[in-house]
Amino acid sequence: MDKALQTMIDNMPEKTGKSLEQWKALLAKKSFSKHTESVNFLKKEYGVTHGFANTIVQLSKTDSGNSDDLLTNQYKGKENLLPIYKALISVVKSFGKDVTIAPKKGSVSVIRKKQFTLIKPATKSRIDLGLKLKDKPTTKRLLNSGPFGTMCTHRVQISKVEEIDGELKKWLKEAYTKAV
After folding, report:
1. Cβ–Cβ contacts within 10 Å for residue 1, how many?
2. d(Cα 44, Cα 30) in Å, to the nearest integer?
3. What is the DSSP string of 130-176?
């Protein structure tokens, strides 16, 4: 398990009033059909911050399969994209110990206090990197969010590791900085 995620889980009782297992039991009784319904419930009814609520909901869903299984399934038939994924994770982890990596069924959320990027294997030859960069104009490379909708403001299409250059790292760092 990612160190930052483990720290978040360890701090959960102090920061949220319940352990991860207690939160999982509570959500199991509710049986929400959508991720956002569960997150909003925890935020509204229990005052849990978005970062903790999102992590609790995500980890509640992953009981049937761990994070490694989620990643394996995402990249099945797209294994050539794993070096890009790993390079992106390396970059975002370098920003600080407050970064949480949360694999989902079809993508990986990267969270500080809020989600600031989303990594999705879009095709067999491309990863779509969603970024939250409010009020930043689009460019030829920094596209509108496209299929990410409101989860992100922008999207960058990445087909090779070399495209994780200084410009892209700057955008990632900016998104991280704004995720407070």
Report:
1. 11
2. 14
3. EE--TTPPP-SSSEE-GGGGGG-SEEEEE-SGGGS-HHHHHHHHHHH
Domain ranges of the chain: 3-64, 69-178
pLDDT of 68 reads 67
d(C-alpha 142, C-alpha 154), whole Å: 6
Coil, strand or helix: which one is 126?
strand
Residue-level pLDDT at 69: 73
**Are β-strands 115-123 and 108-111 bridged in parallel, bridged antiparallel, or unpaired?**
antiparallel
Measure the CA–CA gap between 53 and 47, rounded to whole angstroms: 9
Query: Residue 102 has what pLDDT?
Result: 82
- H/E element, 53: helix 50-61
| Amino acid code (one letter) for 109 | S
Give, for 87, the enclosing helix (H) or strand (E): helix 82-93
**Is the pTM of the predicted complex or chain greater than 0.85?**
no
pLDDT score recorded for residue 67: 62
Could you tell me the mean pLDDT of each successive run of 10 residues in the chain, 180 residues long?
Answer: 76 90 85 84 94 87 60 90 96 91 85 90 96 95 91 95 98 94
Contact criterion met (CB below 8 Å) for 82 and 124: no
